[in-house]
Here is the input.
Amino acid sequence: DAGVIQSPRHEVTEMGQEVTLRCKPISGHNSLFWYRQTMMRGLELLIYFNNNVPIDDSGMPEDRFSAKMPNASFSTLKIQPSEPRDSAVYFCASSLWGLGADTQYFGPGTRLTVL
Amino acid sequence: DQQVKQNSPSLSVQEGRISILNCDYTNSMFDYFLWYKKYPAEGPTFLISISSIKDKNEDGRFTVFLNKSAKHLSLHIVPSQPGDSAVYFCAASARSGSQGNLIFGKGTKLSVKP
Here is the structure.
């Protein structure tokens, strides 16, 4: 299996632009997670899907952030409009059942820089 | 307020010696704990886990110890190797709950010197 696939790996954009990050989870996994990593806050959960349905989006910082999972093999995280403080590494992860004991498999991340 | 804390941002150890990474948590509902390892430009990868019904779990050179009364866990790496140099994240979950999300600490950067 190819593992969790994220694109792009790097994104540089200007403040105010729309940014879309993409994720393909491991085939057969029922849960998908979006995380953001910053120096100040570490690794924080943004949103979590189970069977394509958003279960917990309490970590989404504000209305500028939105996430979708139209099918079991694809998810997007969109930031509109982007701001410099959104600069971070964004990770997508998937797990088999989404239970607390499940191992989460992470993608390589997207490094976002907003100028 | 951070529910999972890794108070040491970095640790430097000589090759062949023991590395001890520490983690504290505040939420008594947590009943499952994991360690993830992260190399630069890669995503975190699962290393080892422990359920709250145990106080120790061992996998090769890696051992995790859990002290529930102190709400503290530690990861021991013996012997340490240069390839162990990475950022280590402690994570916790309330497995008995329906949510699957993990709460991560901020990480400890381990450097193993040859």
